[in-house]
């Protein structure tokens, strides 16, 4: 009789242990909507992710609209968990708003949502060329909340030659002035004239001093076309 009781107890313990080994966490799902700024700018949802903090549980946000998407996380452990929204190639929202805490008590938790908030201030205004045809490629750099720069790569089917233009504001965007203009000339470029690269990479230390990454043509004509050695051909110069 004692042997039967002991065997039964061992059987129950083994069953409970086996069940715990195959127990899965919960499924947590929700929606992410990226809000537009006060000035109407709205980032895209493409490439964003949601992750459970402190774990390797992560998933891509499935796009349902330009600024909207849905996510589903599997095997989320029971208890208090923090969901993290991960942006792609941008930093538009506050760290606090990209975190949401949830209590996982069952097998399914749905309708989880992030209350995202922008952590930057909208410019007062933009250069007059903003939004014009050919001005869709640009990079920005700000020295302070008052001093900023916009470098455009200006090109299009009706724009010849292609050019670069840089604008500066000293009053937070209320007014802008063009302070640099470079037109591409193939012959001058081949002759060694530097030209701001398509990367539009630049940096300013204050309102009057800065550098712009520029390319230099590195081909020479001999018996055949060849690339000069890196030591003989600078890859970039500063303006």
Mind sketching the topology for me?
Elements: H1 2-21, E1 26-33, E2 49-52, E3 58-60, E4 62-65, E5 68-76, E6 79-86, E7 99-104, E8 108-113, E9 137-142, E10 148-156, E11 159-169, E12 177-183, H2 186-190, E13 195-196, E14 202-204, E15 210-212, E16 214-215, E17 219-221, E18 225-227
What this model shows, in words?
It is elongated and about 70 Å long. The strands form six sheets. Strands 4-5-1-8 form a four-stranded mixed β-sheet, with no helix packed on it. The chain has helices at residues 2-21, 186-190, and strands spanning 26-33, 49-52, 58-60, 62-65, 68-76, 79-86, 99-104, 108-113, 137-142, 148-156, 159-169, 177-183, 195-196, 202-204, 210-212, 214-215, 219-221, 225-227. By secondary structure, the protein is mainly beta. The model is unreliable at 2-22 and 221-239 (pLDDT under 50). The longest helix has 20 residues, at 2-21. It is built from two helices and 18 strands. It has two domains: 23-113, Carboxypeptidase-like, regulatory domain (Immunoglobulin-like); 137-232, no CATH class.
């Amino acid at each position: 009789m004692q042997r039967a009781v002991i065997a039964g107890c061992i059987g129950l313990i083994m069953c409970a242990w086996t069940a715990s080994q195959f127990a899965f966490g919960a499924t947590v799902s929700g929606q992410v909507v990226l809000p537009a700024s006060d000035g109407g700018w709205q980032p895209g949802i493409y490439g964003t992710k949601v992750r459970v903090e402190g774990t390797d549980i992560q998933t891509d946000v499935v796009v349902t609209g330009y600024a909207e998407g849905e996510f589903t996380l599997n095997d989320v452990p029971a208890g208090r968990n923090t969901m993290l929204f991960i942006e792609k190639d941008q930093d538009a929202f506050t760290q606090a708003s990209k975190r949401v805490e949830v209590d996982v008590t069952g097998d399914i938790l749905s309708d989880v949502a992030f209350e995202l908030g922008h952590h930057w201030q909208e410019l007062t205004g933009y250069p007059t060329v903003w939004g014009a045809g050919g001005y869709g490629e640009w990079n920005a750099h700000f020295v302070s909340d008052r001093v900023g720069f916009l470098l455009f790569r200006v090109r299009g089917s009706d724009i010849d030659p292609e050019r670069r233009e840089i604008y500066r504001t000293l009053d937070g965007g209320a007014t802008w002035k063009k302070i640099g203009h470079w037109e591409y000339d193939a012959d001058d470029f081949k002759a060694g004239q530097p030209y701001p690269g398509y990367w539009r990479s630049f940096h300013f230390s204050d309102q009057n001093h800065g550098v712009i990454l520029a390319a230099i043509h590195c081909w020479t004509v001999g018996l055949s076309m060849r690339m000069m050695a890196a030591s003989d051909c600078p890859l970039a110069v500063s303006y």
